[in-house]
Every structure is written in structure tokens, then in C-alpha cells.
């Protein structure tokens, strides 16, 4: 039978280290030992010597491999939230739509409150004379170089070595659709079997943007639409259900 | 604010899918989205939703009819007046979010004109019956159409159903004349009277797409009840205002399209079948609403009751504490 959940936050730390609990913004995080060095992930913010929750969801943590360094972090804490609106974060790969050219940069819509800027030079092999052939309306897969609350986000389509690493204008057809952000995180987590299972039977190409947009391309229109629907409905499924759904999908596509 | 722009990829994909007669939401090309109609507690209010209710992919229109007394137009001294006002709610779509957006722009003008041509110029409402004293007093019916959600397209079609339903549902106060004396009876004294509607013209939108491979003379691809993305990609559209008697009241062509007259007649027939089903829907809902009001079941009329039917709160379960001990599978 479910145990009584105590609503008194002061007694939470008295419980025998819960592995996960529901938090709302403003909650303190007594699980973090004050003497430890930890990494605060999304949903948590530091207020003086304490950490405070900023997004509603489930608080989780993971211990990090121990290191000989004195100030090596011991664990990482974060909050799993359900959200649709993307907030730019540095280093994330996103899918954007080019809105316009402005001088030497493209203005790209990535779903944030402001369009991001993408410089002409931030493509592989681009020089002043050799401009990338991207037009307004094209879809790009890029990485966020600058993303802070106070400035407009900046994108690049090259990695630190100057290679494209899969980024750039997405071409050759395909379909772009939007999903909530937690579906993206689920897709990309190593535990989720969705892409692997579908890939065993349907050859496809996919680009997953952390801003909630996904680009897929299969050989035929029917397969592309089915794949997009399969990803959208897998939002609340566990791995067994995903496997069953994929099997049904493949049968339907083969015509049985 | 601007809407998320439709990328070139999506446009191309939409056209490729249409070549195979596939639409992105799984409908076939002649298939319309489901339409739901609810009447409010106040007489003359109607709410229409097209598509799955309460999602990002539904269009929602609210129409309200009201009456006031005014002087008739000099050129038509024995006729009442019907005025239609269309407004877009700020949350209808991202493009309407700011002050400049709520004016509506070209879209609002198009929808307003379509409704005016469909309802006013077709003279579906009997305006002579709205006359109280010739040249002095007539009823002026004001139809307010609020577009609550426009993200999914199909706004004109939904708005015409809502406007018609509001007119059919509305009741004006009873008026009696004794010599020179005009008495307008309050609702408490005499039951209000419904408006006289001759016929019910309903708008129906058809989007046309050019085939990519064959020449421009080839037959075009036609979709009924286009979504917003389909409207961005289409070559042109025809909007019919047809009543169930197959009389065409409104014909509106937009875009870059050359159409044969046989095409117009064929789709007018399809539009008239839609009009018939809409009129049946309005009449059934109106009948149910009237029965409930006559039986005194005031708890079961109005929007609140209609929405409760869809709510998960309909299923009752005794309160119990929820365990958060096992959150690994969230």
C-alpha cells in the first residue's frame, strides 16, 4: 500500500535517502550535503550556500565517478520537467528555420523568444568569397554557441575543429515536426530503444533538435509520416510498449 | 510576434505527400475535420470547434447575436439591419499576439467579407420581419464573431457555422403595437421570439494544388477543409457559400488559379452536402437545447455543461494519497 507522503518539507531529509521526489519551484534541496561539491543541472539554481528548485518536476541525482582532485564534484542533481517552450542553453544542438539574411548573418528561428543569429562564416569551408548557399525558409541543424538570458542566441554550424560534424542545411527532402522537450530527452537517452527498434526495420535519417524539433527522412512519404507519428505517440510508453508499437508499425507499412 | 515560418522542406513534403493523396493529419483529400457545436446559456451564443477539441490543432470560434432598436436606413425604411463584426482573440495564434495583430490584418478582412456576403447579401435573415415602425424603429441585429483559436486553419468555415447557429439560437423581445403605442415586452412578461431565417448558407473551403510533374493543364489536387499549413502551400482556393438546396450564395476565388466551370459546379455540390449536414447539426442541437429549457433543466444547458462532458472529472474516484515512492518510470 502506498506510504503516507509527508507534506512537511522539514522532515524530508529524515527519510532514508529517496532516489527521486516531486518538487515545485521554491523548494529547498536538503538532499545535497552542504559540504559536498556538486553540479547543479537544469531546474536548480544556487542561492548563496543553498540550492533552490526553479522548475516543477521530479528531482533526480546521479553520483559522478570519484576523482583524486580536491574539488571534483561528487554528484549531479537536476529536475526532470515536462515543457514545450524551449529556453536556449549553450552547447545544445537545435533545428532552426532561416527567417532572413541580415548583413553577414542569418536570422534563424529556433523557438526561443528572439530569433538567433548564424554567421555566414560559421559553415564548413566558408570564406568571404565562398558563401553558404542557404536561403530564407531552409532548415538548419546547428549548435548554440552563445545562449544567455540577456543576449540574443548565436548559432554555429561547425564544431571546434572547423568541421561540419553533421550540422548545416538539411536538404534532400524530409519532414520537420515538433514534440515536447521531454520527448526529445527521452529519445536521446541511452535507455530508450525507440530509434534503435525502428531503425532495424525502416531505414531512416534523423536530426533531433533540443528545441523540440525533429527532422526525419525515409525513402517514401508513407514511411516518413509513420515514423513521425511513431515518435510522437511514444511520449508515455515504456520500452516494452515501444517494441510492440514498432512491430505493429512495421507490419502495417509492409501491408499486412 | 510572428508565427513559426513554414520551412521549404515542409512545403515540399506537403506537396510530395499530396501527390500521393496523403495529408499530414491522416485525412483523405475529401475528408473534413469533425465539427462540434455547443450553445450557451444566453440565447444567441454558439461555440464551434473544428478538429480535435482543446488541442493545438483545433480552430475555435465563438459567435454571439444581440439586438437593439435603431432607425432604419433611408433607402430601406421597412427593413431591419444585420451587422457582422469579426475579431481575433490575442491568443488565437502567435501572429495575433500583439496589438497590431488583434486588428487581424488581411485574414480578418477576408473572413469578415466572406461572412457578410454569405449572411447579409444572401438575405438569409428575414429583415422585413424586424421592422417595428416603418421609417422610425427597426431591430438591428449585431453578430459578434470571436475567433478564439486560429492556429489550425478552417476559420471561415467554422465562423459561418457559429454565426448561423447564433442567429438560429437567438431570441429577440416580443413587440406589440397599439395604434401609435409601441410596447417592447421584457422577457419576464412575454417569451422572446426567434428570428426568421429563410435558408442556411454555409461556407466551405476547397484548396487547390498544382501537380508537380505533369504540365499546368493537368487536373489539380483538391483538398477540402485545408489546415493552416495547407493554406500556406496551396496555389489557390475556392470558398463556396451554399445552402442545403444547392443554391450558391457566395463564390470567392483566391490565389493564382484558372478553373473550369465544371469544377465549380462539382465542388458546389460537395459544399451543399456539407451545408446539409451542418444544418442538420444546428437543428438537432437547437432542438435538444429547446427541450432542456422547456423541461426546466437549467443545469444541463450552456457551455459549462457541454465541456464537463469532455472532462476527466466526469469519472469519480474517492480521494486517496498518491505514493511518490516509485518514480523511476516517470
UniProtKB/TrEMBL annotation, chain A:
Protein's name in the database: Exosome complex component RRP40
GO biological process terms on file: CUT catabolic process; exonucleolytic trimming to generate mature 3'-end of 5.8S rRNA from tricistronic rRNA transcript (SSU-rRNA, 5.8S rRNA, LSU-rRNA); nuclear polyadenylation-dependent rRNA catabolic process; poly(A)-dependent snoRNA 3'-end processing; regulation of gene expression; TRAMP-dependent tRNA surveillance pathway; U4 snRNA 3'-end processing
Subcellular location(s) of the protein: Cytoplasm; Nucleus, Nucleolus
Keyword tags: Cytoplasm, Exosome, Nucleus, RNA-binding, rRNA processing
Keyword Cytoplasm in annotation: yes
Residue span(s) of domain K Homology: 174-222
Similarity field: Belongs to the RRP40 family.
The organism of origin for this protein: Tigriopus californicus
Stored Pfam families: KH_6, RRP40_S1
Major localization class: cytoplasm
Stored CDD domains: KH-I_Rrp40, S1_Rrp40
Chain positions covered by the region annotation Disordered: 1-27
GO function terms (MF aspect): RNA binding
Amino acid at each position: 500500500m502506498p506510504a503516507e507522503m509527508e507534506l512537511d518539507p522539514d522532515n524530508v531529509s529524515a527519510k532514508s535517502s529517496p532516489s527521486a521526489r516531486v518538487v515545485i519551484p521554491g523548494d529547498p534541496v536538503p538532499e545535497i550535503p552542504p559540504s559536498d561539491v556538486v553540479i547543479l543541472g537544469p531546474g536548480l539554481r544556487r542561492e548563496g550556500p543553498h540550492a533552490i528548485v526553479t522548475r516543477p518536476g521530479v528531482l533526480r541525482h546521479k553520483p559522478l565517478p570519484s576523482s583524486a582532485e580536491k574539488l571534483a564534484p561528487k554528484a549531479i542533481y537536476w529536475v526532470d520537467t515536462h515543457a514545450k517552450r524551449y529556453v536556449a542553453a549553450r552547447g545544445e544542438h537545435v533545428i532552426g528555420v532561416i527567417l532572413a539574411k541580415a548583413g553577414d548573418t542569418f536570422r534563424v528561428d529556433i523557438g526561443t523568444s528572439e530569433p538567433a543569429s548564424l554567421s555566414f562564416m560559421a559553415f564548413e569551408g566558408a570564406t568571404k568569397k565562398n558563401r553558404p548557399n542557404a536561403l530564407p525558409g531552409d532548415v538548419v541543424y546547428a549548435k548554440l554557441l552563445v545562449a544567455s538570458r540577456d543576449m540574443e542566441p548565436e548559432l554555429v554550424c561547425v564544431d571546434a575543429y572547423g568541421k561540419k560534424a553533421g550540422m548545416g542545411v538539411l536538404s534532400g527532402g524530409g519532414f520537420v515536426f515538433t514534440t515536447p522537450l521531454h520527448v526529445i530527452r527521452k529519445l536521446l537517452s541511452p535507455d530508450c530503444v525507440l530509434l534503435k527498434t525502428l531503425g532495424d526495420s525502416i531505414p531512416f535519417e534523423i536530426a533531433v533538435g533540443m528545441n523540440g524539433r525533429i527532422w526525419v527522412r525515409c525513402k517514401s512519404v508513407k514511411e516518413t509520416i509513420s515514423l513521425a507519428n511513431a515518435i510522437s505517440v511514444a511520449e508515455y510508453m515504456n520500452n516494452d510498449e515501444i517494441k510492440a508499437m514498432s512491430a505493429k508499425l512495421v507490419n502495417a507499412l509492409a501491408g499486412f | 510576434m510572428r508565427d513559426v515560418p513554414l520551412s521549404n522542406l515542409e512545403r515540399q513534403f506537403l506537396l510530395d505527400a499530396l501527390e500521393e493523396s496523403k495529408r499530414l493529419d491522416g485525412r483523405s483529400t475529401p475528408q473534413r475535420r469533425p465539427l462540434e457545436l455547443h450553445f450557451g446559456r444566453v440565447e444567441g451564443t454558439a461555440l464551434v470547434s473544428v478538429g480535435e477539441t482543446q488541442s493545438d490543432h483545433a480552430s475555435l470560434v465563438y459567435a454571439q447575436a444581440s439586438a437593439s432598436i435603431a432607425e432604419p436606413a433611408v433607402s430601406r425604411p421597412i427593413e431591419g439591419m444585420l451587422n457582422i463584426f469579426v475579431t481575433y482573440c490575442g491568443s488565437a495564434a502567435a501572429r495575433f499576439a500583439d496589438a497590431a495583430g488583434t486588428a487581424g490584418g488581411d485574414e480578418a478582412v477576408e473572413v469578415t467579407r466572406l461572412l457578410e456576403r454569405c449572411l447579409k447579401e444572401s438575405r438569409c435573415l428575414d429583415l422585413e420581419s424586424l421592422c417595428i415602425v416603418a421609417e422610425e424603429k427597426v431591430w438591428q441585429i449585431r453578430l459578434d464573431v470571436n475567433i478564439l483559436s486560429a492556429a489550425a486553419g478552417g476559420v471561415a468555415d467554422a465562423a459561418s457555422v457559429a454565426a448561423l447557429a447564433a442567429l438560429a439560437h437567438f431570441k429577440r423581445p416580443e413587440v406589440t403595437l397599439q395604434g401609435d403605442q409601441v410596447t417592447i415586452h421584457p422577457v419576464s412578461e412575454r417569451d422572446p421570439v426567434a428570428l426568421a431565417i429563410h435558408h442556411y448558407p454555409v461556407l466551405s473551403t476547397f484548396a487547390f494544388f498544382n501537380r508537380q510533374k505533369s504540365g499546368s493543364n493537368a487536373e489539380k489536387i483538391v483538398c477540402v477543409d485545408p489546415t493552416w499549413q495547407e493554406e500556406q502551400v496551396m496555389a489557390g482556393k475556392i470558398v463556396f457559400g451554399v445552402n442545403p438546396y444547392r443554391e450558391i450564395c457566395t463564390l470567392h476565388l483566391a490565389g493564382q488559379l484558372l478553373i473550369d466551370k465544371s469544377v465549380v459546379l462539382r465542388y458546389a455540390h460537395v459544399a451543399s452536402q456539407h451545408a446539409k449536414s451542418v444544418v442538420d447539426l444546428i437543428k438537432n442541437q437547437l432542438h435538444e437545447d429547446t427541450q432542456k429549457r422547456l423541461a426546466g433543466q437549467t443545469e444541463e444547458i450552456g457551455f459549462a455543461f457541454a465541456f464537463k462532458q469532455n472532462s476527466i472529472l466526469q469519472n469519480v474516484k474517492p480521494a486517496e494519497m498518491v505514493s511518490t515512492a516509485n518514480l523511476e518510470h516517470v
